[in-house]
Amino acid sequence: MALRKYKPVTAGTRWRIGNAYAEVTTNEPEKSLVEALPGTGGRNAQGRRAMRYIGGGNKKMYRKIDFKRNKPAVPATVKTIEYDPNRTAFIALLNYADGEKRYILAPQGLEVGAVIVSGEIVAPEVGNALLLKNMPLGTVVHNIELQPGQGGSMARSAGTYAQLNAKEEKYVVLKMPSGELRRVLGTCMATVGIVSNSDHALQSMGKAGRNRWKGIRPRNRGVAMNPVDHPMGGGEGRSSGGHPRSRTGKYAKGEKTRSLTKGSNKLIIQRKNGKKLSN
Q: Is 243 exposed, middle or buried (0-12, 13-18, 19+ CB in 10 A)?
């Protein structure tokens, strides 16, 4: 993808680095695949504020994405590559040979007119979805299932991918975007390729107002509050505030949050910090 650096003609464009949207081919979504997405403003079912710093923003429609890829052996032609306001990656509109239309996460390098297919045993080419056990070692994949038929739930954000490192009986070993090595059932589906829009993390908003358009309100620092409002508040002058922690007193750095009895621990070979688990 390509980034666009704006000329400093205003204060808001001085530091702005945006997306050039070179891959995007249309601005109009497929009407049959969108639905209303009401905003919450951070409020729960009782109407009380449950999440701070959320509210406002432009209205947007939800694009229904096919994470399951459950149309085996039916070829599909890529009609458009589109921007999705609900996710960091681009999406691709597929026209299946039987007339059905579906959105999928667009992998990097997928172009309009390309023909892709899903199934248990298909060629491991970009955009194709197949079983992990039928992929050659070293294949990079995204949109990975945790349970067969569940639909992809891992490696779905912009620029992410996992790599197939080994095969062990009914499992395959994947190196996840975090560096973690974990086992996944070989009967799970995954899509070949890297998720599109890999330079998303290099963008810069340029001004606070662009975050307001996204529904993000200003966030107050804990050290700027009073002691009654935050554990890090108070003090004379610009004091540090002590150990970083949340408003409820939970440590923000260094405390382990993963359960020691979590069921998937037995599937993790090596954590993202390089520590190997004894299974």
A: exposed
